TrEMBL record:
Annotated gene: allB
Region (Disordered), start-end ranges: 1-20
Record family assignment: Belongs to the metallo-dependent hydrolases superfamily. DHOase family. Class I DHOase subfamily. Belongs to the metallo-dependent hydrolases superfamily. Allantoinase family.
Identification of the protein by name: allantoinase
A Pfam family reported for this protein in Swiss-Prot or TrEMBL: Amidohydro_1
One GO biological process term: purine nucleobase catabolic process
Quaternary organization: Homotetramer.
Entry's Gene Ontology molecular function annotations: allantoinase activity; cobalt ion binding; zinc ion binding
UniProt-listed Enzyme Commission number(s): 3.5.2.5
């Protein structure tokens, strides 16, 4: 982590800047500090003393209201084109901006076509162009038969390629078997890329024995996740590839991840707000269904400990919406996916604060970690040279989630009716307040501005 304490007091040379946002609680990689954040040309130009802000066309004084970096959500299913009635770039990015998320990375499946080659990536980028309220990057996909497309996708700027080790739920995105995973990892290792994996072993999954949540939960045991994670670790070690496990739900995965980390295997892992804030014991309906499933409260405690330890590097939404008609009451048949993009920050903050964590921790998990994963070095932290993506956040304000008032397309979320702490007051994208009437987001490529 770079120390920018030497930037304090740096003068923008007497020139008039665009914007200064100051707060006594600016959340930086070094902790909370009283600072004036000087912005010019969409970038953070300098961090100055709170009491000595440089000249600017506009000064916003937040006082004791915390200033966070814009969050980075590297796991979002936007579903456009092809299933835009489930979600779309306009609605998903409006929800993101309202929730303090200034960068999302779109998953390669649930859209039609899925992002499996450069041509389909261009279709996706064309669908997104001019519709985004936050910055958007893209993952490619790794499926049987598209091994020759992985390098061109990497060269076209995707953040990495995603695979499933078990059925994805959509026929146009089939899973990789053991040999397919090894081949994909070897290919990715050859060009220094990243493979991210949905890790459940299909041999240990079964059809639910009935319509209840308990039946569904038993059909996707922790052991299925653990065995698949161990397979990714073993093949990453064998090939030297960089790999990442998405949406870890099972505490059983933590020991192999911990051991892999200690052994220097290039494997990281994330979890999601719903695994940290919800529990199997409180599931009331199909809005809670996702794969892997929300597990018991005791399992949830272990995930929090792994975050604090760094075994899990971040928290991302896995926002995977559908139309309400697909959320049928039968858990065996309901679409599996949680809609939470707009409420992830308050959901996590409410639970984190109750466990003794601070905003610095939440920012590390929801901004810095995902930015690093996705290869976006100029995102996710308040430091000079980074994009001026900022969030004024009121950690003490409370609200009740009204799913009908959220910006994502369909009014389905397990958070509906929940009382949460933490309200986003303003979101700035590259120094400009997010305006949901005027899309100002850019389409990103890995590593580049």
């Amino acid at each position: 982590m770079h120390d920018h304490s030497g930037d304090e007091g740096a003068s923008p040379g007497g020139r008039q800047g665009d914007l200064v946002v100051r707060s006594r609680r600016v959340v930086t990689p070094e902790g909370e500090r009283a600072l004036a954040v000087a912005v010019r040309g969409g970038l953070i130009e300098a961090l100055c003393p709170y009491d000595d802000p440089p000249g600017a066309a506009e000064l916003v004084d937040l006082g004791d209201l915390p200033l966070l970096p814009g969050l980075v959500d590297s796991h979002v299913h936007v579903n456009e084109p092809g299933r835009t009635h489930w979600e779309g770039f306009a609605t998903a990015t409006a929800a993101a901006a309202a929730g303090g998320v200034t960068t999302i990375v779109d998953m390669p499946l649930n859209s039609l076509p899925p992002t499996l080659d450069v041509a389909s990536l261009e279709v996706k980028r064309k669908a997104a162009e001019g519709r985004c309220h936050v910055d958007v990057g893209f993952w490619g996909g790794a499926v049987p038969g598209n091994l020759p497309d992985l390098r061109p996708l990497h060269e076209a700027g995707v953040m990495g390629v995603k695979c499933f080790l078990s059925p994805s739920g959509v026929e146009e995105f089939p899973e990789l078997d053991h040999d397919g995973l090894r081949a994909a990892l070897a290919e990715v290792a050859g060009f220094g890329g990243l493979l991210i994996a949905h890790a459940e072993d299909p041999a240990l999954l079964s059809e639910p024995g009935g319509p209840a949540y308990d039946d569904f939960l038993r059909s996707r045991p922790q052991e299925a996740e653990r065995r698949a994670v161990e397979r990714v670790i073993a093949l990453a070690a064998e090939t030297g590839a960089r790999a990442h496990i998405v949406h870890v739900s099972a505490a059983a995965c933590l020991r192999p991840l911990r051991e892999a980390r200690a052994a220097g295997v290039r494997v990281s892992a994330e979890t999601c707000p719903h695994y940290l804030t919800l529990a199997a014991e409180q599931v009331t309906g199909p809005a809670y269904k996702c794969c892997p499933p929300i597990r018991e409260a005791a399992n949830r405690d272990a995930l929090w400990e792994a975050l604090a330890e760094g075994v899990l590097m971040g928290i991302v939404s896995d926002h995977s919406p559908s139309t309400p008609d697909l959320k049928v009451p039968d858990f065996a048949k309901a679409w599996g996916g949680i809609s939470s993009l707009q409420v992830g920050l308050p959901a996590v903050w409410t639970a984190a604060r109750a466990r003794g964590y601070g905003l610095t921790d939440v920012v590390r998990w929801m901004a810095e970690g995902p930015a690093r994963l996705a290869g976006l070095p100029y995102k996710g932290a308040i430091r000079p040279g980074n994009d001026a993506d900022l969030v004024a956040f009121d950690p003490d304000a409370e609200f009740t989630v009204d799913v009908a008032a959220l910006h994502h397309r369909n009014p389905v979320s397990p958070y509906d009716g929940r009382r949460l702490s933490g309200v986003v007051r303003t979101t700035w994208l590259r120094g400009r307040p997010a305006d949901l009437a005027t899309p100002a987001g850019r389409l990103l490529t890995r590593g580049a501005r």
